[in-house]
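Retro notes, item 3 of 5
We never archived the inputs for the adenosine-5'-diphosphate complex last cycle. Fixing that now. Sequence and ligand:
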Amino acid sequence: MRRLLRVPLPALLITDTSGLLLDANDTFLRLAGVAREELEAGRVRWDALAAPETPSAGAQAVDALRRLGTAGPLETEYIRADGTRVPVLLAALALEAPERTLVLVQDLTPRRRAEEALRFLSDASRELAEVRAEPDAILAGVAHLAASSVATWCLVDVLEEDGTFRRVAAAHREPDREPLLHEAPRYPSIHEAGSVLFQALARGESRLYPDFLPEHAQQMTRTPEQLALLKRLGARSVMLIPMRSRGRAVGLFTFASCDAGRRYGPEDLEMVEELARRVVAAVDNARFYRQAQDAVHLRDEFLGIASHELKTPLTPLRLKLQSLQRQVSESMLNGTPLPADRFFDSLDVALRQVRKLTDLVDNLLDVSRISAGRLRLELEEVDLSSVAAELLSRFAPSAEKLGCVLELHAPEPVFGRWDRLRVEQVVTNLLSNALKYGAGRPVVVHVEEDGERARLTVKDHGIGIAEEDLGRIFERFERAVSDRHYGGLGLGLYITRQIVEAFGGAVRVTSQAGKGSTFTLELPRGQLPVPAVG
Ligand code: ADP
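Structure as it came back at the time:
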């Protein structure tokens, strides 16, 4: 019998009916927190170890053991020598030796932990299924859930593109300690010297500190004040778990337990790693959902503007065609000749509207070509100065109508290898914007060579652009004017930038609201044939 009690597992003890612990194996002594010397001194009553307020099952167990010597299995709790509690399952067996009972004690902690972890994971998954939530709200929800079950406190930090951590959630089981948690040290950027721990986390490596020691706290902080703050948070066991998306760390979970009886182990780490995977999937879903919503909204808005823009030339076109039809039928009826000059003017207006429609449709086609990566360039030798001169003369009639003086400074030819039609398109976009948004004021165009690059600037003195809009006007459908005052699809500058970048060049703007704008186009001149000497 004594040999049996030396076998490491499970926890076994022998008691007499009075509750005195006669012998026990090491597993039990460890579980109960009792030293063998105390046992051997005959001082330990095993039933005294049962929690005083144990559910009746515990009391029944003790009673049953006293009276019958056989009972169980029954669930109860032990108070260990250090005061911490252990959930246990008891089974007792009366031995043949008189008044001796063998008690088997199974530590239920791992099972309870697994149940708690599963419950937490399934509660968190329910929270994560809320696809309409904002990503930060999802993360805050998970942090609060963690702090009410597997952690005493929990932090969630998002790893930004620039390597810094942004704290999006901090939750504490005791709400009055939450302000302290909000002061908890911000984690350093992964680019900071000495950030070895955070670099490892950013590579996707988790960290488990079953016993969170001062040196671990030191690795997580930068200054003595931060260290003191972290100590005040009283973590005894800590896990740091990165969230990874498409092979890259995107954030970090910090789980801390301040409870001596809750020491994190590899199963906990595995559980939070699983949680991190689910959180990333949920956050990605929420983000895609929002992007899809935004895209649908943008598309609807665009369809509204596009229909309006396409309709604008259609009305005068229809009126002109109707008037032409009337003139033709009158001349046929009366046998009179067609009034050639009026007829010509109407045709001219009609053709102008057709050109506008064609331009709009071409822009739309360009956008879909660009989105599909099908913008093809036919490179040839082009003189940017003569392109500018030609376009300025093409724009002269409309500039005159709008009261704009067009000025060109292009003293020399500036050759480069470009797609002629695309270069014309880009310059046309800039010129038509300058006339549209700078009506009534002069527009000045400069063309010059700057070594390997060619530069063209279009300067107007019109409404200008507010500083906060400068960054977005080159984006698709972005406009910085109201639809009521100026028509347009918000595509010209987007297409311009896409074409210019396809040439390896750049387009920039400097402007101030009310003070006019200057758009600068820079194009690499490319490999030109060496001119023949002589
Ligand atoms: P659209 O002119 O059709 O709106 P663009 O892509 O050509 O589209 O221009 C985007 C926006 O940039 C315009 O809506 C306008 O707010 C602003 N913008 C472009 N050119 C100028 C300019 N020369 N002066 C002032 N604002 C301009």
